[in-house]
């Protein structure tokens, strides 16, 4: 064997070595687990500290209280931030909104959105193209309660490494622990995902949320989740939407948000009818059916359906800065549209501006075209790039195998020839 070919073989071996090791270790790309990106996501402690500091900087608009509850030795604390411009929270003429984030531990992005919404409400951050006069007019007439992290104990388990945990600190799914149709199990019931608890409201977190909802009596409720992109309205336990005027208003609002902010990419309709499975004992069904809140929604703000099943951080949260920023920008803008049109649709705002919801026709008539270039192209290019990398990787693996085969054949040939060549 001459020295040139031995160098060549050595190089090929070096290139293939990591692949051989991975193959030997049973490497499976589907088993890759993305860790929490700490450049983008705060820890729960840092996030709550930041929210508290924000509230303290704006005492005329914001206040915070922590509610506690215990059940059989299991304790939970839920922080609630109230936005009310003159702090006159007893003013019954104001439109009341209750937003909750982080009901499922692994959906970290939702609590980041809570902070963004509060920062805009405090006027430390602004939406692009925001008309501040119109915004102030809207916000004057609102009281908004924000629960930034409903499931702090579950979130701590995620931060300790259990990245797929969605339940609370003792394994109960807080979005199955409410009383409407509680405990009913579908054929594909998985206790790791959907354990409803020992009885309705067995969990301190749900007890606290029910207490807030019943005492505050909101006109509008949003339960913010991630895992897909959707704007859901009741029902979760049936595959239909409710009848009546308030249901029609919810539909109109959801369609407007979808076309105005998400180019029609969000799934809409009843949670139970759209998501592919019925969910029993959910918060939004209780809030609509029992607490009689006229507008009740579940928003799903992000999901990566291409993520492997075990790669939960990636499945439920944006992992790169561009997507992270886009999700927070788009959804905070959607929330401020909701703050503006929600009261108008329910006839609770004496505004000079009439509700101008975007219809499907307006959308197809040009709205779509003007918005498409924003992110669509970039995502397409990004996905094409990924596809190319995958194809190159497959080609590389194939050539390594061929080269190894040639290498082995050559060695065995030279071994066979050696005795004959020797004197
Ligand atoms: Zn969720």
Automatic annotation (TrEMBL):
GO CC term (a single one): extracellular space
PROSITE patterns: PEPTIDASE_M14 (PS52035)
A Pfam family the protein falls into: Peptidase_M14
InterPro entries per UniProt: At5g42320_M14_CPD, Peptidase_M14
GO molecular function, one term: zinc ion binding
Transmembrane intervals: 391-408
SUPFAM superfamilies: Zn-dependent exopeptidases
Required cofactor(s): Zn(2+)
Keyword flag Metal-binding: no
Residue span, Peptidase M14 domain: 40-341
GO annotation (BP), single: proteolysis
Gene3D superfamilies associated with the record: Zn peptidases (3.40.630.10)
Active site: 300 (proton donor/acceptor)
Signal peptide positions (record): 1-23
The entry's keywords: Membrane, Signal, Transmembrane, Transmembrane helix
Family: Belongs to the peptidase M14 family.
Protein's UniProt name: Peptidase M14 domain-containing protein
Lineage: Eukaryota, Viridiplantae, Streptophyta, Embryophyta, Tracheophyta
Gene from which this protein is expressed: LOC110785201
